[in-house]
Specification:
By secondary structure, this protein is α/β, with parallel strands linked by helices. The chain is built from 20 helices and 15 strands.
Length: 568
């Protein structure tokens, strides 16, 4: 549940910190005091879309920090585990936005993306406001609502449908890959040719690069041989007066003549002998390389042909040896499968037909279960609507006709049902689509009836109602207050309201106020004590001009609410 909220520089709020309690928390205040700003702040920290106009005038950035108790929220803990974020019973979420539009989201001090933030907060808070009816009015969401409500009866059938659907799709994919009966022989020949072509080529890692290096060397063999020959002649050629080894030999001979006159000359002679040995080795290696570099047109043609073969195989089967081998494995598997003959394809065709039958039969059973659940849901919602003053309201789930199996090539993973909620508020009026018939006040009551019926399904511990009581007054206002209190028995409820009946039923009351001085206007949120609550209810019932009469009525409302709460 939401335990506290800290708001800085959002619209008219410069700084606000408030703690929320379990049960029913009711926020009220004058029109224009800033009730919507509180909802905007909560929406902002939950990850809803916002722009820089939300930032308080004259400030560079705005931020909202929310703390949640997630000790009983297994879904939230699973998501935190997926995000590799430390899990504690207290969760901190902070979102900041700057004047240049930059957003920063943090969960327990760890920076996350906006998408990650939304994924987490969707398990924590459910907000319904006057303008948030798209989900309920959208027919695409109706089947999901029904399936969630009737999971005990529907869940296993949906899981089975999904399993059969996957088997059916896998079978269709194999048939697509292997071909029909008429394609078997042709595909076997194709796969055999490809296997033989790849195996015969027998390309090795690094082979192409090595061959290209040899080719480059052979294409430049004449200049290579010329340079090597000149190098050899310089080191140990026939011209004794110019080659290095002969010159060193002469130097050694001359030094030997005078070695007795200086001890250092012997060392020089030894060093020259060593150099002479090294040079002879160099000359031999140069001569060997020159012999190997002899131009061989036939060898060059073989290398060119092999490079062309390697490149052809790579163009057809993969750009690397690894990719070629993976392709070979894939083709070998298909070849081995088909080589057994047409029986294997026939088995796949039979499997496909059987899976289609199984999917269809399960979809029919799923549809039957959904219709049973829909009747149960309809009765419960109609009962809720009657308690909310809509005694003649009718609510039904309208299903499409299930098509015959002969007309189907497949069955959707979610079954064959298309369903839409239908509604009528008045006796004698046929049920019609929600979007075409329901009014604002009726939608508020319908939403409350639906929320009260399915509240325990999603595991969300905090529900926020932003003036769900719009268009409601009198006795129905009291019923709405009791419904919201009933919901809050098992979870935290925050309700922004203008109804005195709902304010009287609260476990904790908050007053939203706007104040101004010569320079600025601010919005604040404060917890009401007993006396302040009496004054707020007087304001809500419009009794400020006759406080002497209104005060006893306000006190009586609070006392009656306490008695009703004790019975719920």
């Amino acid at each position: 549940m939401l335990t506290s909220l800290s708001v800085k520089n959002i619209a008219l709020i410069d700084s606000l910190e408030v703690e929320f309690s379990k049960g029913l928390n009711v926020l009220s205040g004058e029109t224009g005091a800033g009730k919507s700003i509180i909802i905007d702040s909560i929406n902002f920290v939950l990850g809803k879309r916002a722009d820089k106009s939300l930032i308080r005038y004259g400030e560079e950035q705005a931020s909202v920090t929310a703390f949640f108790d997630i000790s009983s929220s297994d879904k939230a803990k699973e998501i935190l585990n997926e995000f590799d974020i430390d899990i504690e019973d207290e969760l901190m979420i902070k979102r900041t936005m700057t004047i240049d539009g930059k957003n920063s989201c943090n969960i327990n001090g760890q920076k996350v993306t906006l998408a990650m933030l939304k994924q987490l907060t969707s398990t924590l808070v459910d907000i319904y406001g006057q303008n948030d009816s798209n989900f309920i009015l959208n027919p695409d969401s109706h089947l999901d609502i029904l399936d969630d409500y009737g999971y005990a009866k529907i869940g296993k059938l949906k899981e089975k449908q999904s399993e059969i659907y996957k088997l059916f799709k896998d079978t269709c994919q194999k048939l697509k890959e292997y071909g029909s009966f008429s394609d078997v022989a042709k595909n076997i020949d194709l796969y055999e040719y490809q296997i033989n072509e790849i195996k015969e080529a027998n390309i090795q890692d690094g082979e192409e690069e090595e061959l290209m290096a040899i080719r480059h060397k052979m294409n430049n063999s004449q200049s290579v041989i010329s340079s090597l020959s000149q190098a050899f002649e310089s080191i140990n050629g026939d011209q004794l007066d110019t080659n290095i080894i002969s010159l060193i030999s002469n130097a050694i001979s001359e030094l030997n003549k005078v070695s007795e006159y200086d001890d250092r000359i012997e060392d020089l002679i030894n060093r020259l002998d060593s150099a002479k040995i090294d040079l002879k080795d160099v000359a031999a290696t140069v001569e060997e390389i020159a012999d190997e570099s002899e131009f061989d047109p036939e060898r060059l043609a073989q290398i060119e042909e092999r490079i062309s073969q390697i490149r052809l195989i790579k163009r057809k089967y993969g750009s690397t040896v690894e990719e070629i081998n993976e392709y070979l494995e894939s083709v070998q598997e298909k070849y081995d499968f088909l080589n057994g003959g047409e029986e294997k394809i026939k088995d796949l065709e039979i499997d496909k037909v059987n899976y289609l039958k199984d999917m269809y039969n399960n979809a029919v059973a799923l549809s039957k279960a959904r219709k049973e659940v829909a009747n149960e849901l309809s009765l419960k919602i109609e009962k809720e609507l009657q308690e909310l003053g809509m005694k003649d309201a009718k609510f039904v789930a309208s299903f499409n006709e299930i098509p015959d199996i002969d007309s189907l090539e497949s069955v959707p993973e979610n079954g064959l049902d298309e369903m839409e909620f239908m509604f009528s508020a008045n006796k004698g009026q046929p049920v019609r689509e929600l979007t075409k018939i329901i009014s604002g006040g009726e939608l508020s009551r319908f939403t409350l009836a639906l929320k009260n019926t399915i509240a325990n399904l999603d595991g969300i511990n905090t529900m926020i109602f932003d003036e769900i009581d719009s268009g409601i007054s009198g006795h129905i206002a009291q019923v709405v207050a009791e419904k919201l209190y009933s919901i809050s028995k098992d979870r935290q409820v925050l309700a922004i309201t203008h109804l005195p009946q709902l304010a009287a039923m609260a476990d904790t009351n908050y007053l939203i106020e706007k104040s101004s001085d010569d320079k600025t206007t601010k919005t604040s949120l404060n917890i009401l004590d007993k006396d302040s609550l009496v004054n707020e209810i007087i304001r809500l019932i419009g009794g400020e001009t006759s406080a002497n009469f209104a005060k006893p009525h306000a006190i009586e409302m609070i006392d009656n609410a306490r008695k009703i709460k004790d019975k719920i």
